[in-house]
Amino acid sequence: GEAPKPAWPAGSAAASATRVVSIAPATLSLTILDVSSSAAASVVEGETLSVSIEAENVGAEPAAETVELLDIDGAPADNTSVDLVGGETTQRTLVWATEPGDAGSGNVTVDSPTASAQTRAVEVLAPQSFGVEILGAATPVEGDTLSVTISVENTGDIGDTQTIGLDVGALGSN
Known about the structure:
By secondary structure, the protein is an all-beta fold. The protein is 0% helix and 45% strand. It contains no helices and 10 strands. It has strands at residues 28-37, 43-44, 48-57, 63-70, 76-84, 89-97, 104-111, 118-125, 130-137, 148-154.
């Protein structure tokens, strides 16, 4: 076969041409799909909060990045690695195993080196905790009923019913 002919007329000054091509760099786009716990929209300290995300490589180059979940204080809670070719999408679930002392409300954040951070409001509730204080007691007379006045306060965020008992075994007899 015959070699292809140049696109320039013979004797022209253009002996070669350069074409500039821009290739979009790897860039992740993150979307929080859902935030849930074993109970409802909020979570009680000690329960796990699950954050479902979608990561899409909106660039043309392959992306290999770590997507991180930050708790309401901005501390790392979980992460996952994603390897995506240009245009590829994946879904993942990140979890925050809450602990005592995590109670409060704020935003969990999902972020990666090339993505815009995404946030979602969550609330971590303090578990029920009952404080009992004896306010007063009548002077007991043997054979009569002992009357005790108490104050009970639930200092947690979750309602509950509990039985309060009085142990008089340490009173002895005189």
